[in-house]
Amino acid sequence: MNIKTKEGVDTLLRNRHSKIYKKLLGQDTSLIIDDPLENDMVLNMGPQHPATHGVLRVLLRLDGETVINCIPELGYLHRGYEKLAENVTYHEFIPHTDRLDYLSPLSNNVAITLAIENSLGIETPIRAQWIRTLVAELARISSHLMAMGSTCMDAGALTMLLWTFTEREKLYDIIELICGARFTTSYTRIGGVANDIPEDALAKLKVWMDDFPSQLQYAEKLVNRNKIFLNRVSGICHVPREKAIELGLTGPTLRGSGVPRDLRRDEPYLVYNELDFDVITYTEGDVWARSMVRVQEMKQSLKMLYQILDKMPKGDVIAKKPKAVLPRKAEVYTKMEELINDFMLINFGAAPESGETYTAIEAPKGELGFFIVSDGTGHPWKMKIRSPSTSNLQSLAYMVNGSMIADVILAIGSIDPVMGEADK
Amino acid sequence: MQANEIYEKLKAEYGDAIMELVSDEATEAWIRISPDKILEVCLGLRDDKGFKFDYLANLSGMDYKDSIGVVYHLYSVELKHRITLKAILDRENPTIHTVERVWKTANWHEREAFDMFGIIFENHPNLIRILSPYDWEGYPLRKDYVTPQEYNGFKVPY
Question: Which of A16, A64, A134, A272 supports an S-S bond with A268, CB 3.0-4.6 Å?
Fold first, then answer.
């Protein structure tokens, strides 16, 4: 097809968009009425909008300012990670998970290694499990801080974002001390974690943890009893309990509708069964409830962090399984056996028995699952990423139907999607 | 409820539609379902008092070289048990009834399976591509997929 001319581009776009417009309009063709004032309007929100957490396009059909129909369109950030996973070894895929949910990379690292270990059938040392729990909770706090700030920003309160961002920056400094990178952490390894947490990182974390509640309270004061904010976010984009389960929502979005489902409690992984925490639920099911769930969850995570620091035992941080776990660099350089193992692992990868496993964790956004199918070689035969953002975004159309156009932004903010993992 | 109990109960109710229980591999147990009975079985799994599988955790397409599969991971929020269902389809004409009626969340999962594997979900309300462009050709996650050289005049392996 020649697309060098303007006509070519127009035809291409018309063909490409006809399907989505057909769905939006249905059988109803009232858009062709002559008088523009009595018409419905089609508004194209995105693909690039500062409030949409990534590149999400939403097509809205409007009657005045009321949304009649809403079609979210995905795929603008599609990088083919599932195809890519089939062509790399398990070790090589771990850094790619940083780019899935880029607001909580540590949590994705933990999820992928748990899934691979489940498929390989290996156990990690106790200390590594505690460290993973620690970093997963750090990731949850940083992700929720971002969500809290951006929800308020979507409602027009810009100050909150700056305040939560400040806290998030401090947290990222600590994450940098732990694993050497702020954003693309790649901290976990098959069989454990890359390195032990240095003492100064723990000390700095302790200082931050003591300071954080007062900072959070300071930020909360801005909105918690602020009448403008409460009127803005209460009662809009309501999702009732049954609908939330049917739509397959997970995470804070589900718990905001009053369903106490939390994988940390329901199917404990890592060391969550040794920690004392509450599953936060709000029964309102509106934007306010979902944002409150996140704020309260941060406090629960902080409670867990204190317990983890108290209980974390000393010991190894990586398992000794030569067939699956990469040896330490110093040993590769000095010992023959390790050098051979390293060579085999890098070239052929760790090979699980052929079989299928589905492993899910409670990521900040919801249930993050990896469905790994192995055929006995070093590459996965198939890896399906069940990302919370995709499933949660599906509820957007239900949430905003019948509400005002300005609420669409808040609805997206309250779902807190990250398009990196929604589009994969 | 354990997988074998679920299997026994389903077998008693639906007979031949429930084909086998596989639990000997290095994997979680899964039940193979006859594709033409998938809707009935899923409705039963959702509505039966003993099962209450009200939540579809994951729906995934699969390429088994000589056939195409659909894998359903179900979970019950109330009873807190899970089960994996699997339907094996013909490679040339992979067709199965949609479960969108049973769990709304299946809508996008099925669109993704259609996009990546070309599985046709009958009676799906809006079976169009979700991640790749609407005019993309071929099904990328199939093992025999060949990356096209060109897409609308653009070089693809960029």
Answer: A272
Tell me the residues of chain A between 15 and 44 that have a Cβ less than 8 Å away from chain B: 15-16, 19-20, 23
pLDDT of A138 higher than 50 = yes
For residue A45, tell me if it sits in a domain. no
A390 near B CB under 8 A: yes
Residue A342 has pLDDT above 60, yes or no: yes
Domain range holding A326?
322-351
A2: pLDDT strictly greater than 60: no
Percent over 90 (pLDDT), chain A: 4
Cis peptide bond upstream of A47, omega within 30: yes
In the predicted model, is pLDDT for residue B50 greater than 60?
yes
Dist. CA B113–CA B99, nearest whole Å: 13
Q: Would you say residue B20 has pLDDT above 80?
A: no
**pLDDT value, residue A1:** 46
Residue found by looking up tokens 């808040």 in the block: A410
B26 or B68: which carries more pLDDT confidence?
B68
- CA proximity to A84, closest of B58, B84, B72, B116: B116
Cβ–Cβ contact B63 with A under 8 A:
yes
- Quote the tokens at residue B139: 């099904």
Burial class (CB in 10 A: 0-12, 13-18, 19+), B157: exposed
Residue A366's H or E segment, with its range, is strand A366-374
Q: Residues 6 or more apart from A28 whose CB is under 8 A from it?
A: none
Report the pLDDT averaged over residues A208-216.
Answer: 89
pLDDT category at A101 given cuts 50, 70, 90 is confident
Place of tokens 């249905």: A26
C-alpha A173/C-alpha A104 separation (Å) is: 14
Phi and psi based region of residue A5 (left: phi greater than 0; alpha: psi -120 to 50; beta: remaining): beta
Same domain, A193 and A259: yes
My answer on whether A146 and A270 are in the same domain is yes
Whole-number Cα distances in Å, A385 to A250, A277, A373: 15, 28, 12
Question: Contact, A75 vs B131, CB < 8 A?
Answer: yes
Candidates A4, A239, A382, partner chain B, best to mutate (most B CBs within 10 A):
A382
Residues A271 and A347 in one domain: no
The pTM for the full model equals: 0.85
The bridge status of strand B95-97 relative to strand B120-122 is: parallel
Same domain assignment for residues A112 and A236 = yes
Asked whether residue A313 falls in the same domain as residue A288, the answer is yes
Compare A8 and B86 and report the one with higher pLDDT: B86
Question: Shortest CA distance to A26 belongs to which of A59, A66, A73, A64?
Answer: A59
In a domain, A423, yes or no: no
* Spatial separation of the C-alpha atoms in residues B9 and B11, rounded to whole Å: 5
Q: Taking CB atoms and an 8 Å cutoff, what residues of chain B touch A75?
A: 129-133
Over residues A285-322, the pLDDT tens digits come to: 888 888 889 989 999 999 889 998 888 888 888 888 88
A160 and A232 together in one domain: yes
Strands B150-151 and B120-122: unpaired
